[in-house]
Amino acid sequence: MNLTEGEIGLFFTFNGLIVFFFEMPLVAYSQKRWTPFKSMILGALLMGLGHLFLNLPLHWLLVIGMYNVLISLGEIINFPFGNSIALSRAPTHLKGKYMGFWAMMFSSTFIIAPILGTRLVEYFGFYNTWFIIAALNFISMPGFIWVRNRWDRPIKGRDQAELSAL
Question: Using H for helix, E for strand and C for coil, what is the string for the chain?
Fold first, then answer.
């Protein structure tokens, strides 16, 4: 896809509008309807499908539009819950450290992802890179299930009833 500056601008504008209009309603809906882990699994699924959509032989506008919708909705549904899980899992006296580590981990992805992504494109091309990134999204789904299953184990100093509410 050889997009012009204007087309790239439309892509980012569309993404911003999706987030602006849908983030708060979707997060509120997700909190009422699903557990944090179900939201994270659904978000990973949507993001994986978005990356797969980039390899479909369709008109570029449809491909970019569907990618944008799927990725935006996946991020909106997935990302807020990782933060809340880290906070709820922390013992009271370590909440600041847990959130600091979460912020450091999340921020490091903005450094690591572009480096790894450009290497993937360099060695495998865009077509295969989108499959690899989609596969990583799909692989994260059983990872979330594994973490959720371990979640039920008691934590020293935490009440089991408090944990089951998460």
Answer: CCCCHHHHHHHHHHHHHHHHHHHHHHHHHHHHHCCHHHHHHHHHHHHHHHHHHCCCCCCHHHHHHHHHHHHHHHHHHHHHHHHHHHHHHCCHHHHHHHHHHHHHHHHHHHHHHHHHHHHHHHHHHHHHHHHHHHHHHHHHHHHHHHHHHHHCCCCCCCCHHHHHCC
Tens digits of per-residue pLDDT, 59-82? 888 998 999 999 999 999 998 888
Closest CA relative to residue 144, chosen from 36, 62, 69: 36
Residue 27: CA count within 13 A, CB half-sphere: 15
In CATH, what class is 5-164? mainly alpha
Where along the chain do its domains lie?
5-164
Is residue 141 a contact partner of residue 44, using CB atoms and an 8 Å limit? yes
Q: Report the chain's terminal Cα–Cα distance, integer Å.
A: 43
Q: What is the pTM of this model?
A: 0.84
Question: Across the chain, which distance is largest between two alpha carbons, in Å?
Answer: 57
Nearest to 14 by CA among 71, 58, 60, 57: 71
Answer with the residue of higher pLDDT: 85 or 125: 125
